[in-house]
Amino acid sequence: MTTPTTRPTPPTATPTPTATTPTARLVRALRRPRTIWSLLAVLATLVVGALGVGVWYACVLFQLFNGTLSVPCAEATRFAAAQPLPASARTAECHRGQWLGVQYTAEFHIPREDFEAWLRASYPTARPPFACEPTADLCVDVSMPADTTPPDAKGRVVRHLADGTVIEAWTVPDGTLRVELRAYTV
Fold first, then answer.
1. Full-model pTM
2. Separation CA 73–CA 29 (nearest Å)
3. How far apart are CA 6 and CA 15, in angstroms?
4. In a 3-state reduction of DSSP, which class is residue 3?
5. Buried/exposed 62-75: b ≥16 CB within 10 Å, e otherwise
6. Per-residue pLDDT at 67
7. 3-class SS at 105?
8. Would residue 175 be called left, alpha or beta, if left means φ above 0 and alpha means ψ between -120 and 50 degrees?
9. How does pLDDT run across 39-97, given as a tens digit for each residue?
10. Given 69, 96, 104, 173, which is the most exposed site by the fewest CB atoms within 10 A?
């Protein structure tokens, strides 16, 4: 009788990381100096970019709080409930500031006739300009009507106009007026 021969079963092999497994490739890649420097360069770029954005944001906030944030003059006149500046207005600079309230300023040069026409078109019910020595040649103080904007769905009242506007004008040697408009909320 023949006895069956049994073959020995091979031992189960434990998997060892080979050159083709993702873990082995990552370990090999991280051991290369070029890869490490590349990762550090990317990290440094991200950090410097974040710092740059932070500095830019801080500068914008600083300009906003001290009233030197440049804005289009159409935005400033709209806030002051005035007509857009006429075409004869030159060297116009407009700024916005915000601390406890919102303030817009506009400074421009304009011929006297155009200034008076712009003023009548912008504020028909305002008193005519009056002399306000010693600060300026002409002054206009406009109190805005109460803002009757209804509350939104959350019960907040969003203001759309300034509470008051002060306009001062000085005569310059060439005969035009240098005008300063300040519109503000209380």
1. 0.64
2. 57
3. 26
4. coil
5. eebeeeebeeebee
6. 76
7. strand
8. left
9. 888 999 999 999 999 999 888 888 777 778 899 999 999 999 889 999 999 999 999 99
10. 173
